[in-house]
Amino acid sequence: MQYLALLERKNGALDHALPLQEWDLPECFEILRRRLEQSLQGEGTREYIQVLRLLEKYKLPSLSQAVEKGLRYGALTRDAIAQFLIPQEDYAQSTFRLDGHPHLRHVQVAKTRVSVYGELLGGQR
Prior knowledge:
Layout: H1 2-9, H2 27-40, H3 44-52, H4 60-73, H5 78-83, H6 91-94, H7 115-120
């Protein structure tokens, strides 16, 4: 894995890197590489190596799923693919409920008056 950090600086050596020739990566990685190199020209290989460097933190099956999702959505960069590796919160469990908070049932939030923001700016509208 440390070899990938070196390749990031010398990305032209990716195809000749002996430590990586034994890797049996899923097909989605080859598709990703082709698309990155096509869309980002000279920076595509470096971006691909940065995606491979995600293997320093994540296991291959997880990264493969993230790459496949990135290919489906057209989100091909390292940062976009990394977002797919972050566990997603279940929105059903993040909805605020009043159960167990009866004292909040009578709270009322006043409607926002946009003109107040103008007053804060010194009377500008």
